[in-house]
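#help-structures

NK: newbie question. if I give both the sequence and a SMILES, will the prediction place the ligand too? trying with magnesium ion
OV: yes, paste both and it writes out the complex. here, I ran yours:
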Amino acid sequence: MIHSLLSGDYPRSRLLTVLLIAIFIGLALGPFLFSGTVAFRTMGLIVVFILVVAAYDLMLGYTHVVSFAHLMFFGFGAYGVAMALDSMGSNFTAIAVGTGASLLASIVVALLLGLLSLRVKAIFFALVTLAIAFSFMVLVNQLYTLTGGEDGMRVAVPRELGPAFRLDEPLTGFSLLGWLWGVVTNPLGLVEVTREAFFDVRANGRLLMYYVSFVITLVLFLGMLRLVNSPFGRVLLAIRENEFRAEALGYRTVYYRTAVVVLASALATIGGVMFALVTRYITPESTLDFELAVFVLLMCVIGGMGTLYGAVIGATVFLIAQNYLQDLLGVLSGWMEHVPVLAMAAPLFGSDRWLLWFGVLFVLSVYFFPTGIVGQLREWAARRSRAGEELVEGEKVDEPASHGA
Amino acid sequence: MASENPVIETRDLTIQFGGHVAVNQVSCAFYPGTLTSIVGPNGAGKTTWFNLISGQLRPTSGQVLLHGEDISRLPAPTRADKGLGRAFQLTNLFPNLTVLENTRLAVASRYNIGYNFWNMAARRQDITDKAMHYLTQVKLAHRADYVANGLPHGDQRKLEVGLLLALEPEVFMFDEPTAGMSVDEVPIILDLIADIKAREDKVVLLVEHKMDVVRSLSDRIVVLHNGELVADGEPAEVIASPVVQEAYLGAAQDETEQA
Ligand SMILES: Nc1ncnc2c1ncn2[C@@H]1O[C@H](COP(=O)(O)OP(=O)(O)OP(=O)(O)O)[C@@H](O)[C@H]1O
Ligand SMILES: [Mg+2]
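OV: that's the protein plus ligand as structure tokens.
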């Protein structure tokens, strides 16, 4: 069962397994474990970006195709569904039409992009994607009657996916962090702390949408895991490792690379649709911005390229850092302002400096973990088991399939 | 032999790099069940000729024919599908994949399953078995789980040959397969090449500098010099011919004796 679900691609590190299970549980029960709107929003973003980053990893990590247009396809989905809802009314037909149309657009554009420019050098493809992504951004900004331009547009989701659609009785959640904090700060008042940790979870359409996204990401992620462990996935690895030799063995690498670009783009489009429906407000800045493209790249690299699990870890770590590093820094700089010597340096730790600090963390992590978090964890695990039983280096490719279905 | 149709043939094949003609008007046909050695000094154009035949390069003029069909404009993958297999002079593997995975990629190419994105690759036991079969042939079975670039040089060369075998082509093109191998590894590869030659329907092209090897294995020797075909015939005859003695063998034999 597990073997089939994960396509035989296990985390291969005990710590990584623990982390992945923690993230899975955290996201599956998240609305009932973490209170507050920031937490809810962050979880929604994590779910969406796990999909987007994993799709990016198919190109970057598995095939060594560098695309700057990934977020354009994300934008296709977000704007496609938003515009459909805008013009056709807030119903599910509009969502279906918007999703279908933007998927079709993505597939056609990605196909053309792949067939026309992947024949040439990799750098050429990268440049073409940069140009076309930029053009699309300009277009979205210009067509403000349709897209709201820079101001963005509200996504008029169907009632069933909005806050107005709800059960009369709220459900009950248990704030894990609140409780832990309480236990630490007030260990004697355990009963009181525990009582206070319970909170109301509004069982509304937004919660529904969150779970819909969660399930979509989970299913598509497992599908991608299947893909990278299929014969097709092996060819992608071959292209990454040595395209010249892959061709000499009879693999038409242009078609494979085009296929992976089309696929990744379609998945990004689905991510965009989910983003629009989850956040219910989209702007060029939140969907198409170059900064966001860099973030996706960072999530992929931090997590570990070419592992897919890296997307889960990378997206989670990055988005939590993005949302909470600011708070942390705010607290830190507020505190420093009261300390005479440190007050001068306080602005350096202002909450709007989070990107600076994130950059520092990023450089350090790439320096110490060049293969990303997942790569590093696997390396440690492999080293340990080798020390244990003199195992040979390398991936275990075959396990005489313990057929569990 | 000449009564049979050639499997592969080049006609006036020429390629020019800038002003330099690396392969110049080379016409030559190869027949099933024969092993032809291609010899010539460094820079003679042997590898370039191979590249033109297996599709890594397109000719400036002239043709490559496979069973009479002009394939000189087809890309390398198509030619590989049609039965042209190539092992490279400079080892050319998938460095971070395991030895087994390298070989499975070669085997799988014949199965046309590359676009299957749903079944688990590891469950194709038939492909794994076949890959292991060829790894056993090149004496690498015990290294199956090693990463390719972690292998010693000699083993990488063996894997290079293993990939060509696993591709199961009709035309085997070996470009100095034993270069850099230790003395005890060389016979393994030469025996394998002799086995292929024994199969009536296969064509073997072998670029090799070691004259003793060439003499004992070849049915025929072709000599390239400055991109031109300067001699072609029975081994003894070619080796004895003055043009060869002068153009190549003197220099090459000095080299092998030094080595
Ligand atoms: N892509 C290229 N661009 C320019 N010149 C090239 C190219 N490939 C080969 N040459 C030149 O063509 C000539 C023939 O090279 P080739 O590699 O075919 O020789 P070779 O007979 O295989 O030699 P060796 O025994 O050293 O392997 C050389 O002068 C080489 O520099
Ligand atoms: Mg050569």
